[in-house]
Amino acid sequence: MTAVGRNVRRADGEGKVRGSVRYGMDYTELGALTGKVLRSSLPAARIARLDTSTAATMPGVRAIATATDAPGLSGMFFVLKDQSLFARDEVRYAGEALAAVAADTEAQAEAALAAIEVVLDPLDPVLDPDHALTDGARLIHPDWESYETIVPGPRSGNLAWESRIERGDVDAAFQEAYRVVEDEFRTQRQHQNSIEPHAAVARYEEGRYTVHTPTQFPFNVRGRTAELLGVRPSDVRVVVPAIGGGFGGKLDIMLEPFACVLARKSGRPVRIVNTRSEELRTCAPREGGIVRLRTAVARDGSILAQEGEIIADNGANSSGETVACANAASLVLGSTYRVPNARYVSKVVYTNTPPTAAFRGVNGPYSVFAQEMHLDHIARELGMDRRDIRLHNLIGSGDVMVNGQEVDGPFLREAMDELETMRPWQQLQASKRPYRGHAIVPVTWLTNSGAGSASMKLNEDGTVTVASAATEIGSGAVATGVRQLVADQLGVDFHDVLVTPPDTDTGGYDLGAQGSRTTFGAGNAMIDAGKKVREQILDVAANLLEAAPEDLELADGSVHVQGVPDRRVGLAAISATASMTSGPIIASGGFVAPPESFDGGCMTGALLTHFTAATYHAHHAEVEVDPDTGRVTVLRYTVVQDVGRAINPQMIEGQIQGGVVQGLGYALYENLRVHGGEVVDDNLESYRLPIAADTPPIDISILENPCPYGPLGAKGAAEPPIVPVAAVIGCAVADAIGAPVNELPVTPFAVLQALRKQGESAA
Amino acid sequence: MKPPPFEYRSAHDSAEAVNLLTEYGDDAKILAGGQSLVPLMNFRMARPSVLIDINQTHDMTHIRADDGHLVVGAMTRQRVLERDQTAGSAVPLLPAALAHSGHTTNRNRGTFGGSLAHADPAAELPTVLVALGGELTVQGPSGKRTVPAEDFFLAPLVTSLEYNEILLSARLPRLPQGTGVRVEELARRHGDFAIVSVMAAVHLDSNGRADLVRIAAGGVDSTPIRLHEAEAQLSGTALDDAGIDAAAVAAADSVHPTDDVHGSASYRLEMVRVLVARAIRSAITHQKEGHR
Lengths: 763, 292
Hints:
Radius of gyration of chain B: 19 Å
CATH class of the domain at 363-367 and 394-446 and 611-762 in chain A: Alpha Beta
Distance between the termini of chain A: 69 Å
GO molecular function, one term (chain B): FAD binding
Strand content of chain B: 15-25%
CATH topology of the domain at 363-367 and 394-446 and 611-762 in chain A: Aldehyde Oxidoreductase, domain 4
CATH class of the largest domain in chain B: Alpha Beta
Oligomer: heterodimer
Pfam families (chain B): CO_deh_flav_C, FAD_binding_5
InterPro entries (chain B): CO_DH_flav_C, CO_DH_flav_C_dom_sf, Diverse_Substr_Oxidored, FAD-bd_PCMH, FAD-bd_PCMH-like_sf, FAD-bd_PCMH_sub1, FAD-bd_PCMH_sub2, Mopterin_DH_FAD-bd
Organism (chain B): Haloechinothrix alba
CATH architecture of the largest domain in chain B: 2-Layer Sandwich
CATH architecture of the domain at 363-367 and 394-446 and 611-762 in chain A: 2-Layer Sandwich
Strand order of the largest sheet of chain A: 3-5-1-12-9-10-11
Number of strands of chain B: 14
Strand order of the largest sheet of chain B: 4-5-10-6-7
Domain FAD-binding PCMH-type (chain B): 1-177
């Protein structure tokens, strides 16, 4: 029986359910010390004094590290190197590290932190991104020009990075417009909140660091740790235990370099685990954004041109993906609808706040929220139906996206049509009740194109082991997806495909669990290795069975001659034969997505230039608003999602459920507020995650439009279900109350305010 | 996170608990159901050095009703009280309020007296006690005393219990047969502490005039607040729409909320008005349509 397309049970499922899995935060080593990090209480200050001499003499204290122990500058993806491990001379956010301590016990480490003498001379914090860009705003990085970048990037002062797309004749199109519509949208920070906090256990042996950490992206942790410590990447070995969730928050280094420095200085293993409060205060969330859109439309609703300014709050440095993903905002604005003339500017701005980073969907959710609320505004101006204006401008076969990339099919329309069969629009419009609203949002999203590699061997018992640095962050990509692919390719049982835990010493390079790329990218790399293993198996079998390799088939753990199922030899025998003849069966493979053709000339400062293995989606929600309290209840939610090929439908549905719920949290509840540079919501009482009781029924339909270079046609599936959720909810609430809500989250307070404003303007 | 170290003592009856409280003084805390205390300890927001566990006691677990009152022992589990028919028919506001108190699993363990003694101004049971003018019986080394609910709750998490006193039980006046009750709560998520809660009990006489109106609000002040002015405006009237709306405005005028991380004072004030009006109207419907 083939594995692909079936809901095989996760390889790690039983252990996770029974509680026997040892997660990163459970991992420790014999004699490990407890590490703690001293963090700045002020958002902006000069360090007048930092004296660790008293702390160093305290009982149980084995090492103290400060800025001199970590000489390097680095940045996420090595794009913009403006981050040091410890603050040097100047503090740029509340929570920035000043020193770190390793002691025998947690209490001793905390006592030592308290004994470090710190004198900070406060500076005026720059907190608002708009203000940061004004002339005369204090420079958060006075030495910004000296920082290394991966490519020359447009940047200046507090503008950390800028990416631009400009296509067509925007100004001329605005001249001809029937209407010009303008809006501004503001969105909040969202914290990833994996159930397992960040944790790292490091030791230093024979001149190398070994760090166990539940990271999504071990090679990034290796490279970034090495750069901050001023050593070579190969001097650091990263091993990944089971990961208790990431959602983008575990792509980058967080505690690993501190643990490494302290391990080297103390000569002992050092373990650091964040508290929940440290997670919320210091781990980089999705950035807050400001999106300003201005659109020229024709009388029939056609978008003639659009100008967009996206301001993304980088926080105090570029230790997160915010710079690297700047252009994604512009791409997503111009890849669902035809925007023939476009000028998008995406600005990533320094502020004296904790750095921001990747969170599932990066800047997509707020860009789509802005675009969709804006489209509804346009529809109101033109008196058009909200679904009609979307269908009218929907991108399809032969159209090009804003980057000049050709759309590969009418799949967005198919998603909208499928949704129509599930939730007929006119029927819902006709049966509308007061303070009930609904909305539909199509969206194009991408699969991360990044590199993966794998090494595969046939074991003596006929099972298969794949060595890989691909990580399982809970999506099932490693626990099911890639194993299903290999199982079918080699004709072995799903349970006979083993995958090694990620280890940068043994696994080849892998870009990590991000952008829905693991089944796609790591899976493709494994298939590439599997092809070679398959050839080796067939060569050996051909000799044993006295048949030509092309007449052989692999199934049920053995090789047989086509049409003669009795002439067969098992994989264990093939493995044994190979080790005596041609040598053990082993091969490696690699993958990086082939380039798509696009118009590079229309973009500057763009690090993300195009859509790989694009996926097509349509979401719908029905909501009810209490007009007296402003409270929003989501009644029903519907998702149509193109996945290329559903390798494991149940895992995909799980990702859709999770993505939608996380999106509802972003739309309605979650708000990591920063007041005066301090994170307000450092606990899960006021940082509100949605719970099961807040979650509506979610209906799902999976579409399969195969990708020619995806494994068996598969494309990314895990990231996109969060992307349009805030937009759908925002538009549905606006429909329910007859007034827009241009900020996230859509709180009861904001809803009441919008109702009141609308009442005043009607009066 | 786990709590800081503490000493554990177990009391076998209320007298022993009082003795232990007297012995350890202010450093001791009573452990009843632990649904508020234990999370606070885990967050290190409470650091008692001694916990006196009263889960082994038997003299504080009872539900008794006579002609005029319902008496509930402090160690009665909230879920038991919620489902108790005697309590529900004597004071139907109790099960209605308890349905909003955390989740079922919290109520399985959480106790009636624990919630009262914890005195969270947004919690349901203190608001019920204040709404209905309940009385609390406490025991100290020199005997028992009785405290009216409005004098028991002093400030957030502060009651008039002395360090060596324990809450034994609370007494609530039996509501007239057919009294309509309603709990209106506004929370951002299911199971959250209320931003605002309003409890109402209304009884209309045979002429359609209100001969009993009880209203209190939680989450809007440092303690639950009995809305006397609104009650006075409505008592003896036919509870028409204009009267209800005016009483709701009066209710909002009599509370003094403050801004906090969950919502602004002005939003709370507005919600007191909205929820008082809703609660009264729903309570009337409840009486008219009968208890289901």
